[in-house]
Design brief:
It is a single chain. With 416 residues, the protein is of the alpha/beta class. It has 2 domains: 152 residues, Alpha-Beta Plaits; 235 residues, TIM Barrel (Alpha-Beta Barrel), CATH 3.20.20.450. The strands form 2 sheets. The chain has an 8-stranded mixed beta barrel with strand order 5-6-7-8-9-10-11-12, surrounded by 5 helices. The chain has a 4-stranded antiparallel β-sheet with strand order 2-3-1-4, with helices on both faces. α12 links the parallel β8 and β9.
């Protein structure tokens, strides 16, 4: 099916130029019309179909404008409210694109209506992009629109060519726009007196999510350049919903060096979240995880020194699980070493593991680094680690991750 161009200007550029004067932020929406083929209403397929009137009648709003129909793709422009952040703008445009698509589907017949009811199909064949800040001159505006067309076209192609990947991308967008991930908290016990030293915040997907767990979620976000948006939301959830802490208790939050290297990582917003909960930077420990390696340790030291100067502390997670974590300990001199569960599991029955654990403790004490043993599930493991001189312990024996950990651990910390 071939659609003729409906305007004489390039992608309806004259409408963009008219709108710039009245709207600070504008988005571009693309919808693939070829998906419905002959099921598309006859009127839509007529040369010279009046999309402007159809939009006014079907959508009943004045903030969406017809741009063009090019190569079976309908292109629209939409005003974006000034109050929306960039990630919120993407969700806003996605919602508008869905509504336009649903209006088109409503005129294609019952078979298409029924198919469109699946949440995973409602965004098939749509793309959207927030057009970047306008510069002076028509040529620069054309470049901005061109970049938007490339992004939206890529989304359309992705949704049609790789359904599984597209469904996961849609799911990630949904989780971000609805802020539907949650944080659970696992207690960390001080081995000296058995008191709760703090909690590690762990991200969880909502029930029924297409992602089978937080690891696959974060890996997917990293592949699709959305790791920062996901990390920001996870950090917000971790801080805003964390258990009530005393002035000496800590909240441990997982991050990667790729994220912590971003200049906006610890922004004023993060400090506001802390202030809302009556917390301060000295109560936050950033756990550097194994999800991404550190290529430049000199640069990493400078970055971490900057955050430490603000009061934040640093932990190396999964120590002993691989070479990179051991190198990170030597190069970065963290405040905490979290020893991986693989070394802790059944350590009371394994002489090699005992030797490695003692080595960690001796090294850490010489370097004034505190040690946390992860993955403790048996009383025998807890007794061994306490005898070796570990500072803190974490694991199912002490408390499982929970949204409300205070209730979960009352009377549950074993006295061994």
């Amino acid at each position: 099916m071939v659609f003729n161009r409906m305007t004489t200007s390039w992608f309806g550029m004259e409408r963009v130029l008219e709108s710039i004067e009245h709207h600070k932020y504008i988005g571009l929406i693309g919808i693939d019309l070829s998906e419905w083929k002959n099921g598309l209403s006859t009127g839509f397929r007529e040369e010279g179909f009046n999309w402007v009137n159809w939009l006014a009648l079907s959508m009943g709003r004045g903030d969406i404008w017809f741009g063009d129909v090019v190569s079976s793709h309908l292109w629209l422009y939409a005003a974006i409210p000034n109050s929306l952040r960039e990630e919120e703008s993407e969700a806003y445009l996605r919602g508008l694109a869905r509504r336009v698509r649903e209006a088109i589907v409503a005129e294609t017949g019952s078979v298409y209506k029924e198919a469109s009811q699946s949440p995973r199909l409602r965004e098939r064949g749509i793309g959207y992009a927030r057009l970047q800040a306008w510069q002076s001159g028509t040529e620069s505006v054309k470049d901005i629109v061109y970049e938007g067309v490339l992004k939206a076209t890529g989304q359309i192609r992705e949704s049609l060519d790789d359904q599984d990947e597209w469904e996961l991308r849609y799911e990630l967008d949904r989780l971000l726009s609805e802020s539907s991930i949650k944080s659970v908290y696992q207690p960390i016990m001080r081995l000296g007196d058995g008191r709760v030293f703090g909690y590690e915040a762990l991200t969880r997907c909502p029930e029924g999510s297409l992602f089978d767990g937080p690891l696959s979620l974060f890996q997917f976000a990293e592949r699709h350049n959305m790791a920062f948006a996901l990390d920001r939301l996870a950090r917000e959830k971790a801080i805003r919903h964390c258990p009530t802490l005393s002035s000496i208790q800590k909240i441990f939050i997982n991050v990667t060096m790729g994220i912590i290297n971003d200049p906006h990582f610890v922004s004023g917003q993060t400090l506001r979240w802390l202030n809302e909960r009556g917390l301060y930077p000295g109560q936050v420990v950033f756990e550097l995880t194994e999800r991404s390696s550190i290529d430049d340790f000199d640069a990493a030291k400078k970055i971490l020194a900057h955050y430490r100067s603000q009061g934040y502390e640093i932990a190396i997670d999964d120590a002993g699980a691989g070479y990179s974590s051991l190198q990170s300990i030597v190069e970065l001199s963290p405040d905490y070493i979290k020893v991986d569960r693989s070394l802790v599991r059944m350590a009371d029955k394994d002489e090699m593991k005992k030797h490695m654990l003692r080595t960690f403790v001796r090294f850490a004490k010489k370097m004034n680094i505190r040690t946390v043993a992860e993955g403790i599930e048996r009383p025998e493991e807890l007794r061994l680690l306490r005898a070796m001189g570990f500072d803190y312990a974490q694991g199912y024996l002490i408390g499982r991750p929970s949204e409300y950990p205070a209730a979960a651990i009352i009377g549950a910390i074993p006295k061994v």
